[in-house]
Design a protein that fits this description.
It contains 17 helices and 16 strands. Helix 3 crosses helix 4 and helix 14 crosses helix 15.
């Protein structure tokens, strides 16, 4: 049966905004996009849902998450990056069986509540696979791998192969698996190359945290510094004498399908290497700012033609999974960095969180715009009782008024996976299941 979603404003992305617009959905596909009158006339007899004074747009793409860290909010706040990292490593053993799974399920639900239809996750334990599948998210879950210069690369790959096989049964047609060499400082070049080769052989994307902090640059170049000290009990860091981007480029580890998270500390030459390789970047402005890592050169990356998406990272470093808050942070930091108010516009941030993310993940043929023939991934933002209730620019209104509380519904592959009000008890149950794990990480029984 055909279903029509109509709203006062429709933002197709890649096409002009529509007043009094509508989108028709059938069998998980978008079959029409146009004015309300046009779509209703072409699909007489369809079920119609009137969203009213709202903006209807493609479901957002959160291109970098850690669902398993949904309950880590505030841990180590104010610590230098290396100490913050060590603090999180120290807390993890306090978790009990089931805690990680509960946190991942909460994270998935919070993404849906933020209007997100697709995530690209970096998963330490693999729990994000089942969480994304059960929530009905479209996802690429990258299992993280680690291995210093003393590790046997073939053994690291084999261990990852077994972990992937163990979670494969939890996937759905919407959930793919990927590989995440955690970072050039926690994965030695030879191990990174072996993991990348394995990912290529499986047709998987590769997600890595790179050029995030100055401490990382020191660790990768010299094998010394605060990150090396923080991880000394876990691994030795190989001194390469290179910037992480140049290291990866020289070894052929930048390519289409490479997802580079953060890219804060990159210069024009390194941006050029990324652009020529076909790799994509995920911008995480709140995480970078709150950890004191800096502000990524978003304007320069986009000007060079680098595919760029946006991600929340996780509450461990960026407060929450609210992608609308991330979009506003992207605007604020870009304009502050460049010293001009047009450095990043609202419509451009909507594109970062939709088509941009889809390009980075290699799924722009399926999602990212409201276009006939694409999968029916949609979300809607309620504008009533906001400062943007009467709007001249729907993108401005959506970005500055958007929030989890104002998300009316999130549709993925034509199925409503979240609806405001209807999922209140479900969300409360996720919180109740996840919070005991947070208590254990804090080390109290209160």
């Amino acid at each position: 049966m055909t279903e029509i979603y109509a709203a006062d404003h429709v933002l197709p992305v890649g096409a002009p905004p529509l007043r009094q617009g509508a989108v028709a959905v059938q069998d998980g596909l978008i079959v029409a996009v146009g004015t309300r009158a046009e779509v209703l006339e072409a699909h007489a007899g369809a079920r119609v849902e009137e969203l009213g004074f709202a903006v209807l747009l493609p479901a957002l793409i959160n291109a970098h998450t850690h669902l398993e860290y949904a309950t880590y909010g505030g841990f180590g706040d104010g610590l230098p990056f290396s100490d913050w990292l060590a603090d999180h490593v120290a807390r993890r053993p306090r978790l009990a069986p089931g805690d990680v799974e509960a946190a991942a399920a909460l994270g998935a639900m919070l993404c849906l509540q933020s209007g997100v239809g697709t995530i690209a996750d970096a998963s330490y334990a693999g729990a994000a696979v089942a969480a994304a599948s059960e929530a009905g998210l479209r996802a690429i879950v990258h299992l993280e791998a680690f291995g210093g210069p003393d590790a046997d690369a073939e053994s690291v790959v084999e261990a990852l192969r077994q972990r992937l096989a163990a979670v494969a049964g939890s996937t759905t047609p919407l959930v793919q698996l990927g590989v995440s060499p955690h970072s050039p400082y926690s994965v030695a070049p030879a191990v990174f190359a072996a993991l990348d080769a394995f990912a290529r052989s499986q047709g998987m994307t590769v997600m890595t945290h790179v050029a995030e902090s100055l401490a990382e640059l020191e660790a990768v170049a010299d094998g010394t510094g605060p990150i090396a000290d923080a991880l000394r009990t876990l691994t030795r860091i190989e001194a390469t004498g290179q910037h992480p981007i140049e290291l990866l480029a020289e070894r052929g580890l930048l390519r289409p399908g490479s997802i580079l998270v953060h890219a804060v500390h990159v210069d024009a030459n390194q941006i050029g290497l990324i652009a020529s390789s076909g790799a994509g970047v995920v911008h995480c402005p709140r995480s970078n700012a709150l950890l004191g890592c800096g502000t990524a050169p978003l304007v320069e990356l986009r000007a060079a033609g680098v595919p760029v998406g946006i991600g929340t990272d996780s509450p461990a470093s960026a407060i929450d999974f609210d992608l609308w808050a991330e979009l506003r942070a992207a605007i604020v930091t870009a304009r502050a960095r460049e010293g001009r108010p047009d450095a990043l516009l609202a419509a451009e941030t909507v594109e970062l969180a939709t088509l941009g993310g889809a390009r980075v993940l290699g799924i722009d043929d399926r999602v990212g715009t409201l276009s006939v023939g694409k999968r029916a991934d949609l979300t809607a933002v309620d504008l009533t009782d906001t400062s943007y209730a009467s709007t001249e620019d729907a993108a401005v209104s959506a970005v500055f008024a958007g929030s989890p509380e104002r998300t009316l519904l999130t549709i993925i592959d034509g199925v409503v996976r979240y609806r405001k009000g209807a999922d209140t008890e479900r969300l409360a149950a996720c919180w109740a299941a996840a919070l005991p794990g947070r208590t254990r990480m804090i080390g109290t029984d209160d």
